[in-house]
């Protein structure tokens, strides 16, 4: 069996591969160090470019299974890719813990007004009677109650929050007070204090947080996006923030990344922008390699792989 492995982690993986495995290394430009014509397994790495992906596909006509470390695969499902009948698995769950912690950090930063407290500290200003809010008994709607959404819910429940969620196939889930289907989440917007976007980017979710959705939210509601920037209609969000339809937003992802220095989002007092770093953790690589190796064992024994992507649904 021949595998195509990213140069970033190939040496770490080799000692854990089956003894008969052959390895072809690929760099982030798609350059291969050996012939991949009979390769059947491809493990790509983070920040995969379409040009790199397409070079690998062209070099490996017998490819059967592709594992991507990302949870989101919208950048992979190109027309060229979809022409191939490949099994695609993703890294869903690998980033769930750090992202969930980041979502809670965003809520706490808003509720406890950390921006203002940091400013007061810098000014050496002691202000008595400074007002903050509790997360206890506050409500949150998690749009996308998958692996990441469930990790957020587990942590939010520990703070005593009321937790609502939406998912494609609704069913009761641990820590959620209510789960609705994908077409019902808008009805919950007027009821919640926080809205967390944790759904994959697909043709159905692109721009779903539009002016109508933002108008439905409470004036004190806070929007958190730890998914993909294109899920939010950015011009509508800018209007909502400038005109105080909502209290504010924490955005770990935006439509154009990196966010241009001239973007109005940088200049709004009720916006907290972070550089798409919520999934970062020193343990991400460890978890990514463990997931791939577990799936490789399953693949070698003809067992069902974990995290198979429905390419029609986009996740």
TrEMBL record:
Keyword Acetylation attached: no
UniProt entry keywords in alphabetical sequence: NAD, Oxidoreductase
InterPro entries in the cross-refs: D-isomer_DH_CS, D-isomer_DH_NAD-bd, NAD(P)-bd_dom_sf
Membrane-spanning segments: none
Domain D-isomer specific 2-hydroxyacid dehydrogenase NAD-binding: 104-278
Annotated PROSITE patterns: D_2_HYDROXYACID_DH_3 (PS00671)
Protein name as annotated: Hydroxyacid dehydrogenase
Source species of the chain: Scytonema hofmannii PCC 7110
SUPFAM superfamilies, alphabetized: Formate/glycerate dehydrogenase catalytic domain-like, NAD(P)-binding Rossmann-fold domains
GO MF terms, alphabetically ordered: NAD binding; oxidoreductase activity, acting on the CH-OH group of donors, NAD or NADP as acceptor
